[in-house]
Design a protein that fits this description.
Order of helices and strands: HHHHHHHHHHHHHH
Helix content: over 70%
Strand content: under 5%
Shape: globular
Distance between the termini: 35 Å
Number of strands: 0
């Protein structure tokens, strides 16, 4: 029997190789599939290898793509494209100016105040932690409480070093920000203005038969455009509702926390969970376990519940047809590849992958003989 084992292993290996070879022949015999695969491979290779260098260009292209929807709306109402581009670009510049000179100084001031209050917050947290062994001796011992305090001190020390390193490199960050503020509006304007010229130039390198790629692009364009439009309004509504609630109850750093809550909707499931901690911690350090803390916590949970059960179905419906597991996996994978921007664009990228899989030709089942 032992003499037949190598022969059987060789046969199984040859069968596996034949299956793989047949799959390659069957799949990539279509030139459109080869073209689509090549385009995706080149795109991912460029982003992975030159993403940092081309970041202003890629960001400007994304912004121009988002603004193109407004230009199309104005064109549909009879406005010439040149005038429509000017109106949309002017609105974009005004919005950018409002964010930079209206919102950012307020956020910077509140961040500074929060950093100044951190020692007092840490001291209050230490006092509350040291009372736990007296109140719950069966749950936590004085030694465990001291070990937790030592861990918190070490973490705070490491965060302080990180803040110092960030402040040292802030000059480079300011210069980079200035370059972005000059280059990106110019790039956005020319992407909008010369869209047809750019598309014709890229079209020269495209094959005539690209129906599969066009199918994927139409699906991705529809899904991502609706997703981004809905996500923008979701951020604005959640941000405004959170700021109104926090300001009504007199919560400190209301604008900073409201911005964090609004931006948390970009990362489904994970974002809301992460932002819950700073909101409740600031409320606890301000009021303790009082009635005001309870009201703020209830208001925050109500906003999150309305967002997930009313606002998201109203804005998105079934546009982004992705399972929650697929969304979480996309956040982990693309976040691991590209950091913050990978997390930010995780759902659009997952939508692209889903569109490719849906458009990919399926193997037809071969009827078995009776």
């Amino acid at each position: 029997i032992g003499r037949f084992a190598p022969a059987q292993q060789q046969v199984s290996q040859s069968d596996a190789m034949r299956l793989i070879t047949d799959w390659f022949k069957r799949t990539f015999s279509d030139p459109q599939i080869v073209f689509l695969t090549l385009i995706l491979a080149i795109g991912f290779a460029v982003i992975l290898s030159m993403g940092d260098m081309l970041a202003p260009v890629l960001a400007s292209a994304v912004i121009a793509y988002l603004l193109e929807g407004l230009v199309v709306i104005l064109e549909d109402r009879g406005v010439p494209r040149t005038i429509a581009t000017g109106i949309v670009f002017l609105a974009f510049v005004m919005f950018l100016t409002l964010v930079l000179f209206g919102l950012m100084p307020l956020l910077s001031r509140q961040v500074t105040e929060l950093i100044q209050q951190l020692p007092n917050m840490i001291a209050a947290g230490q006092q509350a932690l040291m009372t736990l062994p007296e109140r719950f001796p069966e749950v936590i011992s004085p030694k465990q409480a001291e070990e937790i305090l030592d861990g918190i001190r070490r973490e705070v020390g490491s965060y302080g070093q990180d803040v110092l390193s960030i402040s040292i490199s802030s000059v480079v960050g300011v210069i980079t920000l200035l370059v972005y503020l000059i280059l990106m509006p110019m790039l956005v304007f020319f992407f909008l203005k010369d869209k047809d010229i750019i598309m014709r130039w890229f079209g020269k390198f495209m094959p005539g038969e690209r129906g599969l790629a066009d199918m994927v692009w139409i699906e991705v364009d529809r899904q991502i455009a609706n997703y981004v439009r809905g996500k923008f309004w979701e951020i604005i509504i959640v941000w405004a509702a959170s700021y109104a609630a926090f300001s009504f109850f007199g919560l400190q750093y209301a604008m900073l926390l409201a911005v964090l809550v609004g931006l948390s909707v970009v990362v489904p499931y994970v974002g809301a969970t992460v932002v819950t901690f700073p909101v409740l911690l600031v409320a606890w350090f301000q009021w303790g376990w009082g009635q005001d803390f309870v009201w703020v916590a209830v208001a925050y949970l109500v906003i999150q519940a309305l967002d997930g059960n009313v606002l998201v179905p109203l804005l998105f419906g079934e546009v982004v047809n992705l399972h929650p597991i697929a969304i979480i996996v996309a956040i982990l994978v693309f976040g691991g590849l590209w950091g913050f921007w990978g997390v930010f664009f995780a759902i659009p990228l997952a939508t692209l992958v889903n569109a490719v899989l849906r458009a990919w030709p399926k193997r037809k089942a071969v009827p078995q003989p009776a």
